[in-house]
Every structure is written in structure tokens, then in C-alpha cells.
């Protein structure tokens, strides 16, 4: 059965599409915050001003974003560099604007807790109070503050915005099509810790941990498959199977086959994912995806190039490369199902080599959002 149609009947050329990427976001946490299925213009204004501060840090994503083969760092201040603030006056101006937006829109933001259970309501109330305090701290900064402390304040404030938004979600935002209901599903988000046994530059064995956030709000079936496999320890003791400077890939276990899952792509301004087709196949490649390949450590399902619906167990991390995957204009968006991002220790991905071993993939948060498969997803 056809799972998607082309409602537009027109398309733009690839050259036209390349002009659409004005200042794309390459911070994985910010991408995730913006992809939440919740609308609050007042809180969005606070978030926007806070995120604009990132460009004022010497170690921000705008300066040290991993967009080349010669420069490391994803977002925030690199631990190996002394941070700096490029314009403290502009930063404090943004802080005042963020605080003004919060104060002006407080009734709207407080109303986000309406209709929620007491636990979620209390979390939102506490987060709003903490956000107010962080903004007061930012507004009251001296003229020569400690840059790392300021950066931590900004990041904490942004995290609080995300907490308010995520806790305000009352129910899963859409109905998965009936013919796909038998697949495993993640109706919300989950956090996984992935431990990999590798070697340092001297050849000495070491184990590193990366943290990923898996997004079921925008890719419930794809994220559900990953969580189901992690839960069953499918990936434990599996080797890294590809590492070529472009992606790091794993997930194939010899002799094991599983039911495939459909390609799943959520685009902006649409409430449900497109299933079964690439955006190019339905002449919609000019549209932005909710979960773009913009960040180092973008997590996506592998599939056969000639079959959009052939994903099963293999997944890959993206290693950003300016020539092949420029943020906002790369050829991966809309062709592969992104289902999460690496939110901690993403730089470690560059050191993963073929033969390194995934010791474990452990779901440490969000397992309550997982629904096992009614049918399908079984080993053949």
C-alpha cells in the first residue's frame, strides 16, 4: 500500500534548494529543542535570544563547529581551549531581551502546565523559577566575567527551556498509520549510553562513553527499533563495521535477519512523518526535515540505496564534512531516517575504528515511552 503521496505536484531544482540554508543550527541539543511538538511563542522568544548568545562565545558552534576535516569541536567551549566572550555588552543585551520576553509572556508560559498531572506541573513550575534566576544572573554579569561560567549559565537556561517544553507535552502528537501499528514504537524520547572499547593514540585499550538522545516524537518507529534492539542487548559486543571519515557504522550481525521498517521522515510544518518514500521520490526535497543531518553525531538508520524501506538493524553516526555534508544543504536529508543525536562526547566518534567493540548500549532514560512490537521486528 502507498504510504505517502505528493500533495504539491511540483519541485525545485537542487541548485535552488542549496540557497535555502540560511544559518542552519548545528547544535544537537538545540535541534532537539526545536523539534519538540509544542508551541509557545513567548518561550520560543526566550529560547531564540538565549541561543543567539552562542555566537558570542569564542568556542561556540559558530566558531568551532565541526564543519571541516581540520577542526574539532561541535558546540560550546572546547575543554582544550581557553574560552572567551567576544562581546559582553551584546551578550547582556540578549540576556535582557530574553528576561523581558519571559516576564512579558509569563501568563502564557505558566499556562503550559494546565491540564497536566501534579508531577509534571511541579517540574514546569520549578523550571520556570530556575530559568528566571539564570536570566537574572546573566543580566547582572560584571563587565569581565568568567567566560566558562557564563557559558554554563546560558546552557543551563537553554536546558530549562527544553525541560519546560518537554514536560508540557500532554500526549503523543499524532496517530501512527494503522498498517504500521505493529512495529515497535518510541512515543517520546529516550537517552542511551553507548560504551565503546577502542585504543588511545599510543595503542593502549580504553573504553569511552557517548550519550545519544533518541527522538520518538519525530521518528517513533525508527527510534523504537533502536530502543528495542538496545533493550535486547543486540548491539552489545558488536564491532564497529565502517569508519571512513564520513560515517561510523555498525549493526550487522552475521546470520541474523530482522523484519525491515519503513523510511520515516518528518518535515517542518507537517504533523505526521512521511512513510515509505524519500523526499526526492515525492518531489519534496526542497522541504526542511525536523531532524536534519546538521550535527556531528547525527544518528540515522542505514538502508540499501535502491530500497527506501530496507532498514533493519544497522545504524550510523554522521561525521561532519564541509564538502560532503554542509549543514542545511547536504544530500542525506530526506533520504535516510534520522532518529537522534549524540549529545555528549561526540568528538570521540572520530577515534572509532573498524574493529573497535561496542561493549554495551544501555537505555538510561525514557524506557517508559517504549511500546514493543505487536508483530514484526522478529528475527527470521
Describe what you observe in this structure.
Helix 3 (41-52) packs antiparallel against helix 5 (88-104), helix 5 runs antiparallel to helix 7 and helix 7 (118-139) runs antiparallel to helix 8. Strand 5 (242-243) and strand 6 form a beta hairpin. This protein has helices spanning 14-17, 28-34, 41-52, 61-64, 88-104, 106-110, 118-139, 147-167, 220-231; strands at 185-186, 189-199, 205-215, 238-239, 242-243, 247-250, 264-265, 274-275, 298-301, 315-318, 338-344, 357-365, 370-371. The protein has 9 helices and 13 strands. The strands form 3 sheets. A 9-stranded antiparallel sheet has the order 4-12-2-3-11-9-10-6-5. Strands 1-13 form a two-stranded antiparallel ribbon. The protein has a two-stranded antiparallel sheet with strand order 7-8. It is globular and about 60 Å long. It folds into 2 domains: 25-167, Four Helix Bundle (Hemerythrin (Met), subunit A) (Up-down Bundle); 178-371, Cyclophilin, CATH 2.40.100.10. By secondary structure, the protein is α+β, with helices and mostly antiparallel strands. Mean pLDDT is 86; it is low at 1-22, 60-80 and 376-380. InterPro entries: Cyclophilin-like_dom_sf, Cyclophilin-type_PPIase_dom, E_coli_cyclophilin_A-like. Its EC number is 5.2.1.8. This is peptidylprolyl isomerase. Pfam families: Pro_isomerase (PF00160). Keywords: Isomerase, Rotamase.
Amino acid at each position: 500500500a502507498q504510504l505517502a503521496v505528493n500533495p504539491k505536484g511540483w519541485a525545485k531544482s537542487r541548485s535552488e534548494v542549496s540557497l535555502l540554508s540560511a544559518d542552519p543550527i548545528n547544535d544537537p541539543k538545540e535541534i532537539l529543542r526545536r523539534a519538540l511538538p509544542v508551541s509557545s511563542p513567548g518561550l520560543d522568544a526566550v529560547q531564540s535570544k538565549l541561543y543567539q548568545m552562542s555566537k558570542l562565545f569564542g568556542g561556540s558552534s559558530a566558531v568551532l563547529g565541526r564543519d571541516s576535516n581540520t577542526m574539532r569541536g561541535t558546540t560550546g567551549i572546547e575543554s582544550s581551549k581557553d574560552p572567551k566572550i567576544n562581546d559582553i555588552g551584546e551578550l547582556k543585551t540578549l540576556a535582557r531581551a530574553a528576561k523581558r520576553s519571559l516576564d512579558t509572556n509569563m501568563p502564557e508560559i505558566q499556562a503550559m502546565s494546565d491540564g497536566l498531572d501534579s508531577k509534571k506541573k511541579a517540574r514546569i513550575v520549578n523550571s520556570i523559577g530556575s530559568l528566571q534566576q539564570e536570566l537574572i544572573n546573566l543580566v547582572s554579569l560584571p563587565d569581565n566575567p568568567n567566560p566558562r561560567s557564563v557559558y554554563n549559565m546560558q546552557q543551563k537556561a537553554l536546558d530549562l527551556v527544553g525541560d519546560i517544553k518537554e514536560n508540557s507535552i500532554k500526549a503523543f502528537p499524532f496517530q501512527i498509520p494503522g498498517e504500521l501499528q505493529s512495529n515497535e514504537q518510541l512515543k517520546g524520547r529516550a537517552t542511551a549510553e553507548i560504551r565503546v572499547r577502542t585504543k588511545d593514540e599510543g595503542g593502549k585499550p580504553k573504553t569511552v562513553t557517548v550519550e545519544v538522545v533518541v527522538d520518538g516524537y519525530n521518528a517513533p518507529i525508527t527510534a523504537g527499533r533502536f530502543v528495542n534492539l538496545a533493550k535486547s542487548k543486540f548491539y552489545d559486543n558488536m564491532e564497529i563495521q565502517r569508519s571512513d571519515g564520513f560515517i561510523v557504522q555498525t549493526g550487522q550481525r552475521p546470520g541474523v535477519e530482522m523484519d525491515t521498517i519503513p523510511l520515516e521522515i518528518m518535515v517542518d510544518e507537517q504533523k505526521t512523518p512521511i512513510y515509505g518514500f524519500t523526499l526526492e521520490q515525492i518531489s519534496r526535497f526542497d522541504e526542511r526535515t525536523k531532524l536534519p543531518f546538521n550535527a556531528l553525531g547525527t544518528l540515522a538508520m542505514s538502508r540499501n540505496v535502491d530500497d527506501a524501506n530496507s532498514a533493519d538493524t544497522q545504524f550510523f553516526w554522521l561525521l561532519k564534512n564541509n564538502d560532503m555534508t554542509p549543514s542545511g544543504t547536504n544530500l542525506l536529508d530526506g533520504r535516510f531516517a534520522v532518529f537522534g543525536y549524540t549529545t555528549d562526547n561526540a568528538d570521540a566518534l572520530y577515534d572509532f575504528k573498524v574493529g573497535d567493540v561496542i561493549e554495551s548500549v544501555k537505555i538510561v532514560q525514557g524506557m517508559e515511552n517504549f511500546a514493543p512490537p505487536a508483530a514484526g521486528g522478529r528475527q527470521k
